[in-house]
Amino acid sequence: MVERQLRRRGISNERVLQAMEEVPRELFVPLELRGQAYRDGALRIGEGQTISQPWIVAAMTSLLDLSGDELVLEVGTGSGYGAAVLSRCCREVVTIERFASLADGARSVLRELGYANVEVRVGDGSKGAPDRAPFNGVSVTATAVGGPPIALLQQLAPDGVLVCPVRRGNDERLMRFHADGRSEAMVPVRFVPLVEGIADGA
Ligand code: SAH
Question: pTM above 0.85?
């Protein structure tokens, strides 16, 4: 996976490549899909949600430019795989998921792996985690319409960056936002939607 799907397709950040090598992706997918865990695509994880394609996880993590000492917020824990990869590249991760069932699953795999620098929360991630801000990096793994939630931009450290898929009309692409208002549009992507509010029963 690392050689064929990542290096050959432009992922060059060694910290990220090493994290992708280390984190056992099969533990984050449902039992019946374990055989497909390293496939070059997204997979269903329940509640109508997906674990992102390996290349997307690597690209988003690379865009945060982590050097190891950062506090990072992830919105959309899903399986917990993205948080696991982030946790190998920075000091601490706070990750928020609106489905309690997914958050519980992610928390238990992360605990099993001994990845103690990840805090999994249930809630509306579009509000961020004001009690832990500012964040050096924010990774939103669900598509926001128009632009990322203002609360998340407000929780960025002065040198922080926020990576988020954004839909404008029919165009959906990964974007990177800086605390000073600059932004860059990157590759076209397809994610599940960012939904405000927590899920029923959560
Ligand atoms: N990073 C995940 C990908 C999950 S898909 C992984 O590695 O598996 C995106 C996730 O975002 C879904 O689980 C969805 O339920 C969640 N989500 C969508 N809107 C949200 C919100 N407002 N707050 C928190 N989580 C949200």
Answer: yes
